[in-house]
Specification:
alpha/beta; 2 domains; eight-stranded mixed beta sheet; 10 helices; globular
C-alpha cells in the first residue's frame, strides 16, 4: 500500500502521542522529525525507529526535505504562524496543532497565502475523527433529541502541582510549563478553547445546516493566575440568534463533559474530546438510552489515517470533506476565540 510520508516539527508531549498513532495507520509513515533539543531527537528516533538521515536539528531542513508529503507542527501556540507560512512557501502540506493561530489576523494571512496554492492545510482537532463523534453526529442528525437548542461544554485538566507549605498541600502552577508562559500563548482559552468552540460551530454547520451569519457574545468570565494567565474561563455566545452555546475551559480542574439539548431531550458526552476505548453516549428523554462506542487505543490514528487517505486520493488537496476541518471553519472558530481571549 502506498503511504503518505509525515514529518513532525516539535517533539513535546502531544507529538509523542501523535507519533504513536502511526503504529495503527497502514496508509501513513512517520518519516522525519525535527527538534532543537538533541535529547528529544535521540529519544524519538529510538522509540519510533526513525532513520538517522531524517533527524533534523533545524526546522528549515525538515521543511526542505523533498521526501516529506506533509508536516505536523507541534510547537507552542505562538510558533505556529511563522512555520505554517514557511511550509506554504515551500509547497508543503500542513497539519498544525490547535489553535492554528493565536489571533484572527494571523489565520486571515494564512488564508490569503493558501488561495494562491493547492496545499492541504488543517488544524489538529482529533476528536472529530473518532468513531465516537461520528456516532454523536449520526444520533443528532436522526432527530433523536429533536431540534437542537443549546450546547454546554466543560473541558479542562489540572495542570498545577502539589507543593507543601508548613505541612499544608497547596496547588501551584508549574511556571516552566508552556501553559503558564504568556510568550508561548499560555492560558486555558488558547490551549483548550478550540474544542468547545469548534464543536458548537460544527453542529451548527453539519447538523443544523447553517452558516454563521450572526455571532453574539453574551458574556465572558475569566479567572487569572500567576503570570496573568487565564486559569479558568467561561463564554456564553449565540449563533444566528438560535443556537445557545456555553463553554468552560480550565487549567486548574479536570473537566470533560458536554451536554447537547434538544426540544425532546438531551445528550450527555463524557470524555467526548478525548475518547479512548469504550465510550458512552447517554440520551435523556421519556425513554433513556445509552450507546457504547469502541474508539480504539489511539485517537490520533483516526486523524492520521483520514488525512493520509485524503492526500492519496484527492488532486484538489485544499478542498476537504468532513471530518477534516477546512480553513473557513478554522477562521470562524478563531473569530470567537479571538473575542474570548481579548476580552478584558
Amino acid at each position: 500500500m502506498k503511504k503518505i510520508n509525515w514529518g513532525i516539527i516539535g517533539l513535546g508531549n502531544i507529538a509523542n502521542k501523535f507519533a504513536d498513532g502511526f503504529r495503527h495507520t497502514p496508509n501513513a509513515h512517520l518519516l522525519a522529525i525535527s527538534s532543537l533539543n538533541s535529547g528529544k531527537l535521540k529519544s524519538f528516533q529510538k522509540k519510533f525507529s526513525i532513520d538517522q538521515k531524517y533527524l533534523f536539528s533545524s526546522y528549515d531542513d525538515l521543511i526542505n526535505c523533498k521526501d516529506i508529503d506533509i508536516i505536523y507542527i507541534a510547537l507552542p501556540h505562538t510558533h505556529h504562524f511563522p512555520w505554517i507560512i514557511k511550509c506554504i512557501k515551500n509547497n508543503k502540506n500542513v497539519l498544525t496543532e490547535k489553535p492554528a493561530t493565536i489571533n484572527l489576523n494571523q489565520i486571515q494571512k494564512i488564508y490569503t497565502k493558501l488561495k494562491e496554492s493547492n496545499i492541504f492545510f488543517s488544524e489538529g482537532l482529533m476528536y472529530r475523527y473518532s468513531p465516537y463523534f461520528k456516532k454523536v453526529l449520526e444520533i443528532l442528525k436522526s432527530g433523536e433529541i429533536g431540534q437542537i437548542t443549546s450546547i454546554n461544554s466543560f473541558y479542562g485538566f489540572n495542570s498545577t502541582t502539589d507543593k507543601k507549605i508548613f505541612g499544608i498541600s497547596i496547588k501551584k502552577p508549574d511556571l516552566n510549563n508552556r501553559l503558564f508562559n504568556k510568550k508561548l500563548g499560555g492560558g486555558a482559552i488558547l490551549d483548550l478553547g478550540s474544542y468547545p468552540v469548534s464543536l458548537a460551530t460544527l453542529i451548527n454547520k453539519f447538523v443544523l445546516n447553517n452558516k454563521i451569519n450572526h455571532l453574539k457574545i453574551n458574556s465572558i468570565n475569566k479567572k487569572f493566575g500567576t503570570n496573568n494567565i487565564d486559569l479558568n474561563s467561561q463564554i456564553d455566545f449565540t449563533l444566528n440568534n438560535k443556537l445557545s452555546c456555553k463553554a468552560t475551559v480550565a487549567l486548574d480542574i479536570n473537566l470533560n463533559t458536554t451536554k447537547i439539548y434538544g426540544e425532546n431531550g438531551f445528550m450527555t458526552l463524557k470524555d467526548g474530546f478525548t475518547p479512548t476505548n469504550e465510550c458512552i453516549i447517554e440520551i435523556k428523554k421519556k425513554r433513556n438510552k445509552k450507546f457504547s462506542v469502541n474508539c480504539g487505543a489511539n485517537i490520533y490514528a483516526h486523524e492520521i489515517r483520514e488525512i493520509s487517505k485524503h492526500l492519496l486520493k484527492v488532486k484538489q488537496r485544499k478542498k476537504v470533506n468532513f471530518p477534516i476541518i477546512d480553513i473557513l471553519e478554522i477562521i470562524e472558530n478563531i473569530k470567537i476565540i479571538d473575542k474570548w481571549v481579548s476580552y478584558k
